[in-house]
Input
Amino acid sequence: MFELIKKDKKTKRRVGILEIRNGDINTPVFMPIATKGAVKSLAPEELKSLGADLVLGNTYHLWLRPGTEIIKKAGDLHGFMNWPGPILTDSGGYQVFSLGAKTGAGLVKISDKGVEFRDPIDGKKYFLTPEKSIEIQLALGSDIIMVLDECPPYPASREQVEKAVARTTAWAKGCKKYFEKKVGPNPPTPLLKGGEGGLKKNSVKINRPLLFGIVQGGIYKDLRERSARELLAIGFDGYAIGGVAVGEPRKYLKTVLDAVLPLLPQDKPRYLMGLGRPEEIVAAVNAGIDMFDCVIPTREARHGKLYCVKSRQLSAKNSFYETLQITNAKFAKDFLPIDKNCACYTCQNYSRAYLHHLFKVGEPLSLRLATIHNLRFYLGLMEELRK
Ligand SMILES: [Zn+2]
Output
């Protein structure tokens, strides 16, 4: 399931292989986000050629539109979007809670049973429960399924966060129970033999999706620890850290990682949800995180903000890269590629001046070329971190 290949001597960085039924994934890994069944502006073949192994689909969006009945007619999400590789799906909870934060309490009601909400587009009522979330993710054919959790906003009172931790644990139990009823119990956990320096493969062939728990607890060290311990007692194939990058000052990332990571087992993958900037990814990998997803490379590409390597000395400071705002006038007559050392399709074939022009006149090709380059930057960063 998760084979740890190498640990860095100076940091807590881990290089491993995550065995998923649709293919093995080298970790640390970055997942491009295919929110509604596509990474915006890219075809799956392009994603593959950029070096993406695993993509993230959003349960909330796919459940509302087009709905699982239509996706099931193509087999599952793999068939529907023509992506044969592994897919991780979130639980849908994060989008529902964000909807509540954006629209006020009117559209979203949370109870111990689940979350009731109205589709902001057509007003239709939905009820997302732990069981429903698993049912949808199974119908989507997800290879890594996330439990439903309650992600409190930032800032939130200690009392609010404490309640969210208790509910997250209760929902995690509900998710696991339903998951096991549908797909059978966990296979025996592959244990790593030999200890440090002599790790040997001893894993079981995976033919079912994996189920990950999500640690909550906000910025409170003891609540993070409590959440992690309660999830460990339930037992999952991997552990995610949620409730980060929700608007809290970035200094709290260290507090959260320091509280949670020492409690997590070495032989299970660790996923930091929704993060982050390149230097944050380097810092989190050095702390022992294996998996990431983030909208930054794709969203910023669509706004003309392009990432370039400045130095191969990766660090937890942002000195190893720079960003170009390609819409700036200074690029109008710049016929260099975005990054002369980048091997991506965009940098091999197009100039900054051409990209600048495409953005200025609103050509859709600008989105595709910029997304290709930024994803290549992020995926290249992960390749460097795996070395
Ligand atoms: Zn490039």
Summary: Residues 158-183 form the longest helix (26 residues). Residues 2-294 form a domain with the TIM Barrel fold (CATH 3.20.20.105). The two ends are 21 Å apart (CA to CA).
